[in-house]
Amino acid sequence: MNKFYFLIIILFVYYLIYKIYFYFCNINSYNIWKKNILKLKILKFKKKFFFEYNNSIFNLYLKKIGIPPVNFNKFCLFSNSKKWIISLIKDINSSFKCIYIIIYIWEPGYWSDQVAISLIRASYRNVKCKIILDSFGSLSFFKTTWPLIMIKSGIKIIESLKINLFNIFFKRIDLRQHKKIIIIDDYIVHIGSANLVDSDNFKKYLNLGKWIDLMVKLKGKDITNIMKIIFSYDWELETGENLIYKNIYVNLLKYNFLNKINKYKDKSVQILTSGPGLPNNLVHKFLLDLIFSAKKKILIITPYFIPTQSLLDAICIASEKGVDVKIILPVKNDSFFLYWANRYFIETLLSSNIKIYFFKNNFLHTKSILVDNKISVIGTINFDIRSIFLNFEITLVINNLYVNKKIYYIYKKYMSKSTLLNLNIWRNRPFYEKFIENIFFIFGPLL
């Protein structure tokens, strides 16, 4: 009984720290964001953007944090991680001005080492290289000599949200820098779900097979400039150094976003960024808005599926209204806890006529949503509480029929390698599985 009371006290103290942290962190970091977005504010986005499909989705982030939809010139999808890294290395080798990187996991190995070598060579060409890596996700990288070698070459590397024995009681250990973005010069952006790892051998001890990710490469000055503002925000949170006002970036006032969006409304993307310090629940509101906007079909791919009750209800209601809802999940998972928590919701979904696919053989790590083949979402946001409310995340909302047809083709390839679940068979799974699922569902918000 004494242990029980002690646990209650610990949880209460943690709750107080949680509240105090968010009270102060939100004020300080949001001020940094407002300062960085100020140049966009000068453009006075007073008019609404009118898109062929559901303009409210695009207006949400413009109104809340000042990010407008922007156009792109070229768009390339990579469903093969090796091909993506080869393209990335080629872009790094061709760089001449700057390279900015935020990555959750940098795992030493053949392909990530090739990226490191290319970055070192770029730095020797006087290309400004700045890298933000999550302390927990890139733990193995920071234990090697690579950081020292890269820093000596002139590359600046920040260990984001660093946790150790000395600050564990003063910083939140459940917040992670989960973004995956690479900005090269003034024209190229890479974004998606892939980390800098060897996809064939990463976490091989778990017997997951290859890691299957979806990455996007975009070209265009407008989207690159917005991404640089987002990078500057994360950089200033970690270092206190503001890159915008050191004239590192191209002056955004040279670009008339309004005219370009109206002209290229069928080739536009909205960048969604989230994390502590930015307005609360933006990702949650966006996902709800996106689901309720569906008229014909919703396709969801996520490795971790622990939705809020509101999102679960929204998906089920959409299906019951006649929307064709499909969800693709990996049959295996890199987390024992998340594997069981994911399964808790499946019976509810199947009971609402939602089609659930289990991706076989390899680990499907892609995070994407496609609605009516008109609006797609690709990025780092998982369909779980951690991504929606806690982590620093980034994703793209794409309004382009040609691109979305390509994305749908990739989805069909995923489904061809998956098993469609049957409600009656699922209901007859062993009792011990149902029991374990219920246990881990309780801890869902912590996973």
Q: In this structure, how is the largest beta sheet organized?
A: 9 strands, mixed
What share of residues is helical? 40-55%
Strand content: 15-25%
Q: Widest sheet: strand order?
A: 1-10-19-17-16-11-13-14-20
Q: Are there runs of 5+ residues with pLDDT below 50, and where?
A: 21-27, 39-54, 246-262
| Computed structural class | alpha/beta
Number of strands: 20
Gap between N and C termini: 27 Å
Radius of gyration: 22 Å
Please tally the helical runs, counting DSSP H or I stretches of 4 or more residues.
17
- In round numbers, the mean pLDDT is 82
Compose a concise summary of this entry:
With 447 residues, this protein is α/β, with parallel strands linked by helices.
